[in-house]
């Protein structure tokens, strides 16, 4: 499956620059034992008071990491410690939208150390993984979705056929299958020529937790053909509607900034830009 190749529009370079921006305020490394897994706005813990963050079972310690001050949680019972921290941040109003969903917490080389509530990952600067699916028709059009207007992030904006987070319980393939069903009501067996397309990386400030978050995310995107006569139907209430657009219509909406930043760069990759 090959998308029509055209020169990259002007918005693409700007979007890629925006996807890689330093923090707006100093951040302090967050460690599990001796492993750096994230970062925290230097003012967050001071703002809410360290004594409110954790009970005495899991000590949040100030340590040195590569010659700089850092915060550290014990490596033992890391999942329990991180989730206690997440609950404390939530109580203090310093957390993102609570999802009751666990995401994996990994080292930079991909070793999994723990899991944590999704709502805490941005304020703690923890790396996440997401998946997107570009759904084409045999005639060359694209299925896209408009996100629900009640979504906490990018409500009402346009997105790829499917886009979602890889939970701690998912493999990459399982995440694609689960999210494709939940968002579009499609089983992977219904799709044709499903294939990996590429990756998109984000490292940029996040508006979560009053702007104290930082987004570090890798998106693995895929493409497939939706057979003629098969129409996506949302299952989880997170999609307002689907539309089947020509490439020209997709290009126009991209130029107008109507797609989410993540979907825009996934589609830029799909179009070879």
Q: Helix/strand-derived class?
A: alpha+beta
Strand content: 25-35%
Say how many strands there are.
13
CATH topology category name of the largest domain? Nucleoside Triphosphate Pyrophosphohydrolase
Task: Give a description of the structure.
The chain is an alpha+beta fold and 273 residues long. The chain contains 7 helices and 13 strands. The chain has helices at 10-18, 44-48, 78-91, 172-184, 208-211, 247-255, 261-270, and strands at residues 27-32, 35-41, 61-65, 68-73, 102-106, 112-117, 127-136, 142-147, 158-159, 162-165, 192-206, 213-225, 239-245. A hairpin with a 2-residue loop joins strand 1 (27-32) and strand 2 (35-41).
Jot down its keywords.
seven-stranded mixed sheet, NUDIX hydrolase, 273 residues, four-stranded mixed sheet, Nucleoside Triphosphate Pyrophosphohydrolase, elongated, NUDIX_hydrolase_dom, 13 strands, alpha+beta, Transcription Regulator spoIIAA
Summarize the SSE layout with pairings.
Layout: H1 10-18, E1 27-32, E2 35-41, H2 44-48, E3 61-65, E4 68-73, H3 78-91, E5 102-106, E6 112-117, E7 127-136, E8 142-147, E9 158-159, E10 162-165, H4 172-184, E11 192-206, H5 208-211, E12 213-225, E13 239-245, H6 247-255, H7 261-270
Parallel strand pairs: 1-4, 7-12
Antiparallel strand pairs: 1-2, 3-4, 5-6, 7-8, 7-10, 8-9, 8-13, 11-12
GO molecular function: hydrolase activity
Keywords: Hydrolase
InterPro entries: NUDIX_hydrolase-like_dom_sf, NUDIX_hydrolase_dom
């Amino acid at each position: 499956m090959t998308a029509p190749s055209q020169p990259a529009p002007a918005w693409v370079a700007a979007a890629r620059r925006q996807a890689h921006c330093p923090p707006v305020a100093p951040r302090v490394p967050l460690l599990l034992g001796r492993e750096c897994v994230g970062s925290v706005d230097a003012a967050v813990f001071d703002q809410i008071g360290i004594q409110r963050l954790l009970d005495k079972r899991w000590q949040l310690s100030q340590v040195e990491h590569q010659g700089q001050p850092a915060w550290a949680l014990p490596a033992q019972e890391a999942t329990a410690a991180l989730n206690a921290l997440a609950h404390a941040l939530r109580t203090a109003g310093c957390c993102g939208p609570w999802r009751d969903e666990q995401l994996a917490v990994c080292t930079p080389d991909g070793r999994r150390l723990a899991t944590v509530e999704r709502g805490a990952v941005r304020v703690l600067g923890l790396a996440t993984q997401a998946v997107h699916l570009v759904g084409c028709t045999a005639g060359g059009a694209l299925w896209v979705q408009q996100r629900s207007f009640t979504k906490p992030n990018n409500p009402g904006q346009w997105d790829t056929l499917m886009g979602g987070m890889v939970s701690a319980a998912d493999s990459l393939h399982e995440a694609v299958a689960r999210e494709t069903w939940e968002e579009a009501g499609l089983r992977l067996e219904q799709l044709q020529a499903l294939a990996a397309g590429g990756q998109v990386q984000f490292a940029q400030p996040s508006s979560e937790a009053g702007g104290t978050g930082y987004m570090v995310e890798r998106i693995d995107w895929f493409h497939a053909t939706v057979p003629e006569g098969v129409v996506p139907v949302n299952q989880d209430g997170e999609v307002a509607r689907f539309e089947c657009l020509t490439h020209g219509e997709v290009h126009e909406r991209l130029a107008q900034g109507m797609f989410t930043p993540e979907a825009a760069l996934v589609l830029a990759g799909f179009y070879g830009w």
